[in-house]
Write a structure and sequence with these properties.
about 130 residues, mainly beta, Tumour Suppressor Smad4, six-stranded antiparallel beta sheet, five-stranded mixed beta sheet, about 35% strand, elongated
Length: about 130
């Protein structure tokens, strides 16, 4: 008959460090140099509000071409998604090759790498941060 090996206290649980995936960060840069790095979805506008708890990014606009709550950017997944939130003057994707694509209100679209966004008369760059 073999002697059972000592397994120690079987009631105690070993604590191991959590291995969470790193948060996906996104840098927003306006055409006047304002910059912010976010780890959550963000709502951009002249005076944005969000009932869902997204980060708010104020884009100063003296000409009032940017709506109060203009655009949502979500970089928490694999792709950067942009959604026009029914803004008055719309939003456009400006691709690196110079082509443009207007966003359809309330319809998320993938923002290609290197592309910028126009919100009214203003321009916004969005990029992943490592």
């Amino acid at each position: 008959m073999s002697v059972p090996e000592d397994l120690g206290d079987l009631e105690a649980t070993r604590i191991s460090p959590a291995h969470l995936p790193p948060a996906k960060k996104v840098r927003l840069t306006t055409d006047d140099g304002a910059e912010r790095v976010v780890e959550k979805a963000v709502v951009v506008g002249r005076n944005p509000s969000s009932p869902s708890g997204e980060v708010l990014f104020v884009m100063k606009d003296d000409t009032r071409s940017v709506s109060k709550t203009h655009l949502r950017i979500d970089g928490t997944g694999e792709e950067l998604l942009v959604t026009d939130l029914g803004s008055t003057n719309g939003s456009t994707i400006l691709r690196e090759d110079g082509s443009r694509e207007n966003l359809v209100p309330e319809t998320p679209m993938v923002l290609p790498a290197g592309a910028r966004l126009t919100l009214g008369d203003r321009t916004l760059s969005v990029e992943r941060v490592q």
